[in-house]
Amino acid sequence: QVQLVESGGGLVQPGGSLRLSCAASGFSFSGYSIYWVRQAPGKGLEWVSTINTGDGRPSYADSVKGRFTISRDNAKNMVYLQMNSLKPEDTAVYYCGTGIFRGQGTQVTVSS
């Protein structure tokens, strides 16, 4: 079955960096686009970024453009989200997903 497992979250100070990882299994990984979404406390899901299959073209929400970078390693069935210049408003549970499938999420807290 489809499995997506996020890791790499934690507590970081404003201006710091984190790298999230998403390990995928149970489907033909290289043939699917993968996205990251996040949910801040008391708010709905917010799309963060997507990386396409094929050309690997990334897209980003305006709120993270220029600070976050998504990448994928098809040989390892992995997707990464490099997050730089983190802000308190980036605090959320981050999920990776494909189609209707999502992982359990990893908590990112940006606070001094």
Structural commentary:
- With 112 residues, the protein is mainly beta.
- The protein is built from no helices and 11 strands.
- The strands form 2 sheets. Strands 2, 4, 5, 6, 9, 10 and 11 form a 7-stranded mixed sheet that branches. The protein has a 4-stranded antiparallel sheet with strand order 1-3-8-7, with no helix packed on it.
- A hairpin with a 4-residue loop joins strand 7 and strand 8 (78-83).
- The protein is globular and about 40 Å long.
- The N and C termini lie far apart (40 Å).
- The relative contact order is 0.32.
- The model has no long low-confidence stretch (mean pLDDT 96).
Q: What are the main properties of this structure?
A:
about 110 residues; 7-stranded mixed β-sheet; mainly beta; about 0% helix; globular; 4-stranded antiparallel β-sheet
Q: H/E series, N to C?
A: EEEEEEEEEEE
Biggest sheet overview: 7 strands, mixed
Total DSSP helices: 0
What's the total count of β strands? 11
The poorly predicted ranges are none
Principal-axis shape equals globular
Rounded mean pLDDT is 96
Structural class: mainly beta
Percent of residues in helical segments?
Answer: under 10%
How far apart are the first and last residues' alpha carbons, in Å?
40 Å
Strand content: over 45%
Q: Radius of gyration from the CA trace? A: 13 Å
